[in-house]
């Protein structure tokens, strides 16, 4: 979907013109068109990935490390206020 939106926007079409031609292929809304807001969110996410590729890669690496348990979990908080 994003590739189509980027290509057609480069050709001068607006998101509102592109939206009716897009189809969701999986999930609860299968066969329907995505909302204009969803398209704009996808474009914003794409712009963020393009602007900060190293930050996105680091976030993916951090998430993977968390999933496999390489990063220690946070220690339980000790409360000094309990004695108050």
Give unreliable regions as ranges: none
What is the ordering of alpha helices and beta strands? HHHH
Count the helices. How many? Answer: 4
Helix fraction bin: 40-55%
List key phrases describing it:
84 residues; 54% helix; mainly alpha
Break the fold down into its secondary structure elements and pairings:
Blueprint: H1 2-10, H2 15-18, H3 36-51, H4 53-68
Structure overview:
The chain is mostly helical and about 80 residues long. It has four helices and no strands. The mean pLDDT is about 85. The N and C termini lie far apart (about 60 Å). It is elongated.
Quick summary:
With about 80 residues, the chain is mainly alpha-helical.
């Amino acid at each position: 979907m994003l590739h189509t939106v980027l290509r057609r926007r480069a050709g001068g079409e607006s998101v509102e013109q592109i939206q009716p031609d897009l189809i969701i292929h999986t999930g609860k809304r299968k066969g329907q068109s995505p909302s204009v807001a969803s398209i704009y969110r996808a474009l914003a996410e794409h712009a963020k990935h393009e602007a900060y590729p190293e930050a996105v890669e680091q976030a993916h690496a951090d998430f993977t490390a968390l999933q496999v348990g390489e990063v220690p979990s946070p220690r339980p908080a000790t409360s000094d206020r309990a004695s108050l």
